[in-house]
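## retry 2 of 3
previous attempt timed out at serialization; input unchanged, resubmitting
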Amino acid sequence: MAADEPLVLGIETSCDETGVGIVRGTTLLADAVASSVDTHARFGGVVPEIASRAHLEAMAPTIERALKQAGVSARDLDGIAVTSGPGLAGALLVGVSAAKAYAYALGKPLYGVNHLASHICVDQLEHGPLPEPTMALLVSGGHSSLLLAPDITSDVRPLGATIDDAAGEAFDKIARVLNLGFPGGPVIDRLAKEGDPKSIAFPRGLTGPRDAPYDFSFSGLKTSVARWIEAKRAAGEEVPVRDVAASFQEAVVDVLTRKAVRACKDEGVDHLMIGGGVAANSRLRALAQERCERAGVRLRVPRPGLCTDNGAMVAALGAEMVARNRRPSDLELSADSSLPVTEPHVPGTAHAHDHDHVHEISKDNLYS
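## retry succeeded, writing output
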C-alpha cells in the first residue's frame, strides 16, 4: 500500500444496507455496515420507506465508525464516492445527499458510481487489479447479468440479463413458499447441503438451442417449484424441504455457471469474476470453480462479506476513478433508480469542487 494511492470513502444505500467503506488504492481499510434486514423480515421483503428511514438514522454513525476503523481523518480523503443507481429511489437519495454534503463541506471531489460496476470492482480489494477486459457474472436479489468490462471506469458492456425474476429474487420467493423466512438465500444454501440436488428434476430456463445464449429466466423455475410443493401439500404428503432446496438451488446455479463459462469461451476471455449477493452461495462457488477449471478459465470470487452490498465496493470503484483521472460528478448529482450498467459513473460538466466560499470553521467543527 503506497501513501500516494487515492484514499476514498464510499457510501452504498441502494437497498436495505447502509454501507460505508474506505480504501487506499486497492487496499481495504474499513468496511462498516448497518443493516435493516431484520426489520424487513417481518414483511417478507424490503419495504422502501423503512429502508430510507433506516439509512437516515445510520448514515452519520456508520461514516464515523468507518473513519475510526480506518484510522484516518475525513480531511485526508482524496474523494467521496456514492452509489447513484440503480436501486430504490428513496434509499439512493439518502446516500447521494449525504455524499454531496460531505464532499461540499470538505471540498473533496464527488463520484457518483454505478452499483453493478461497483460489484465488479470490489474484487480488486481481494485479488488485485482487474484483468482487462473483465468478464463478470453478477447475481443478486435485483440483478442477474453477464457483463464484459474492458474498462471498469468507462466501458461496461451487457451481454445478457434476466428477463424476469433475478436469481436472488427467486431464492426469496421459494423460501417464502417453504416458510423459511427472509432473506431466502442463506437458509436455502444451508438446507441444500443436507438434500439431494438430483431428487427433483426442475426446469432450466432459457437453455434451449434457440434461446438467447446469455439471458436468464427464473420465473418458470419458481413457478414449477411452487406448484410441486403445492401438489405435495394438496396430497397430504410431507414436503422434503432439504431436497426441494437442493434441487431448486442446483437448477439456478447450473444455468448461471453454464452461461457464464460459455460467454468466456465465446468472447475469448480466460477468467470469470462472480459478484453480487448470490455469489456468497456455496454451491454456486463450487460449481463455478469446477466448470471453470474444466474450461481453462480462472475464477475470481470475492469473499462472501464483499459479495453482498457494502461501501467497500463503492470506495473501490471511486478509487479507480481517482487513479485514472476520471472527471468527478458535480453537486447537481442525483439518484437514478434505473441507471444503466453502461454508465459506470455519472460525470459532471465541470470540476465543481473549488469551494473557497465554504467556511473553514464548518470543516473544523464538523470533521476531524
